[in-house]
Every structure is written in structure tokens, then in C-alpha cells.
């Protein structure tokens, strides 16, 4: 059996095992074992990739192609490059951390873990797909469980948040489908057969007018899930109502589908459309970077602060992709990985704080460093990574983005880069504000003096996310080199 299909088969087997389990204990043990196996597969894939790449110079490796629907030339076509491998590793780590953080889930635990794993199947399938139609199917598989996960296990105005999220993402999916079909019906421009194969379409000279028409549709279709301004409003509400593990997967993994889809589909297959439209979407992305940072300052709910921070950080991913050069693209992928680990860690810590204090309002908290020091110290570390302190993943990613963006000689690019860079200062303000109010000073509530200390499964989830944040900051070259090598074929169409 091929190494990539296991990322679909193992989660399905985990779901089948969950169906026959009874009770919380069995459900979480089965979920944990299944997630550990997936992480082991992802680590094995990294080593296998380096071994394969030493002897194989193809754009994609470990490819497999099986006809799915012959009439429309739809295939189960899979393969990976260094970017896909890195994102698969991110997904497996966040999924396992989410299982640990959900260890105490008591309401319908079996159904909760099944929904969580279905979401992960969609994400895994999306990252390995080389067929546009198959990729779209996995995209929908990843999005649909969010409605159930928020609507059933969420809190606050969960029905409103679940419906808003679903309607906006499904609306974006409809736009995306039009873009994908537009690409498909222009994939025979050089006289070949119609195809959904990404690598084959990349060799076709799609007419310029078609590229100008379908690039914005494809870009918006993907970028909405990446919190593109002004279509970002589903994200903060969705985060605020979602249970902890769902927020972790939502921000840490699901939102990465947007940037990956923009890069792998919109820019690779419609390069002239990207050159023509880049200025417009750069403005939207830069506004999103600044708006998300300033909006985070005004919030007092921890989840809303982190949600608007995500809008800002993911705005940087789209901003970097639109700069259309290798350095900025490398930064965009590194930022996707860094933000995935960082925001999942933030949401895990917020869930732990809320589970103990029963509030997410920072004005009602204070002095937590004295009573829950482990959680507090990790929160400070995550905050330092978020504001781009050297030695953490955020610094490596943002430096690549800003250096790549500033390589352009045009004054427009220089100005929007300077505006976006200023978001770093704003990020420092809201991070240090939260740390000062929530963690420092006297304990505001005497009941907090008896808060439960961190459990082994909570520590396991935290460390799973913390290690990559520090690892990327201290030793980023192996990862950066793997990504840069994979960027070369994609930049050719833009030169």
C-alpha cells in the first residue's frame, strides 16, 4: 500500500474502531492510539521524503494515480513535495494535541472524536491531492464537520456561530467550484483532453482572458477560509463558540487550506492572472494584517484576541504569497506552519484557563502566574513567538516575508510592506497587555488560589506544540531548505 493513502485509511480505521467503543475511556484511548499512529506516519514520511528526493527530481514524489470517474477524467491522484510533507506533519501534531486537550470530553465523546477525525481526513486528503476535483471533495469533507463540532459541542451563541461559519465557507466553496470548473474547461487550450490534473494543467497555456476571469474566483474561494479581509468575520465568532480542540484544529490546520490552495492552484495554474490581480489582493491582505492586530487590542475575551491575531497572521501568509517571489513564498509557508503550532497552543492554554476559572474575560483574571505557573509561563512563551521574538518560529517566518516583500523596487510594494511590518508593534502591544493583566499582579479572586494543576495529558498536548515552535526558531534551515527546493517549479510560471 502506498505511503500517502495511509493518511486516509488509518483515520477511517480509527473511526470504525470508535464506532464500536463504549464509554469515554475507550473513545479517548482509541483516538489517542489512532492519532499517535498518524504522527508516526508523518515523521516517517519526512525521512522517506528526504531519501526519495535524493534520487528523484520530479515535482511530486510518492505519486499514485487511479481513475475515479473516467467520463470527466477525474482521478484519485496523489503526491507530495516538501510543502505538503511539512503541512501533513503539522496536521498530525495538532490532531494528537487536540485529542490530549479533549481528554475530559464527557458529552457524546465518541461522536466528538469521530467528527474531529473526519475533519482530519479532509485536511490530509487535501494536502496530498493532485487532482482538482478530488482536492475539492476533501476540502468539503474538512469544512462540513465544523458545523456539528461547534453547533453541538460549542458554547455561547453556538448555533449562530456554526451557521455563520458554514454559510460563509459554503458560499466561498461555490465561488471556488466555479473557478475550478473554469480551469478545467480551459485545460485543453493546447489541444489536449480536459483534465483536473494539476501537473498537467500547469503545462497548458490557459488563455489570458480566462486567467484574469478565474483567478479572482479561485483566490477568493480559497482565501475566505484563510481569513481574507473583509470575509474574515466568520472566524472570530467560530473560534469563540468552538470547544478547545476544535478551535485548535480550526485555526491550527483548517485555515491553512486557504493559503495552500491559493499557492497550489490559483497561482500555479493561473500565473498571469496572479500577476494581473496581485495589487488588488495585496491591499486587502495588508488591511487584514493591520485590522486584525488593532482589533485584537480592543478585545477582552481571550478567544477573540487569539482569533483576531489569527486574522492578522494569516493575512501575512496571503500577503507574502502575492509578492510572487521565492523568499516571500518561503516565509508564507513557514508562517503557515508557525501560526499552526502557535495558535493551537494558544487555544489549548485558553481552554485550560477557562476550564479552571470559568471565564475568558482578561479583566476578571489576574495573578495567574502565582497559581498556575506552568500554563502561565507557556502562555508567555507562545506570546513571544507570536510577536516574532528571535529564537522562535514566528521570527524566522516573518523575516522571510518582509525581506521577500521588500525585494520589489516598486514604491507600492515598499509602502504596503512597511504598513504590514508595523503590525509587529501592534502585536507586541496586545500580547504584553494580556500578559500584564491576566498573569501579573495580585490574584483577583480568592477561589483561584485553589485552581487545579496541570495534568499529564494537558502537558503532553502543550509540549507537542511547544517543541516545534522552539525547534523552528533554533534550527530552521532543514525545513526552509525543504520548502525552497519545492518552490522552484512553481515560481517558473511567474518569471
From TrEMBL:
Keyword Aminoacyl-tRNA synthetase among record annotations: no
Subcellular location per the Swiss-Prot or TrEMBL entry: Endomembrane system; Membrane
Annotated ranges, domain NADH:quinone oxidoreductase/Mrp antiporter transmembrane: 129-417
Membrane topology: Multi-pass membrane protein
Keyword terms, alphabetized: Membrane, Transmembrane, Transmembrane helix
Pfam family, one: Proton_antipo_M
Subcellular location, principal: membrane
Residues in the signal sequence: none
Transmembrane portions of the chain: 6-24, 29-50, 78-100, 112-130, 136-153, 165-185, 213-232, 253-271, 277-297, 304-324, 336-355, 367-392, 412-440, 461-479
Family the UniProt entry places it in: Belongs to the complex I subunit 4 family.
PANTHER family the UniProt entry points to: NADH-UBIQUINONE OXIDOREDUCTASE CHAIN 4 (PTHR43507), PROTON-TRANSLOCATING NADH-QUINONE OXIDOREDUCTASE, CHAIN M (PTHR43507:SF4)
Name by which UniProt lists this protein: NADH-quinone oxidoreductase subunit M
Annotated source species: Flavivirga spongiicola
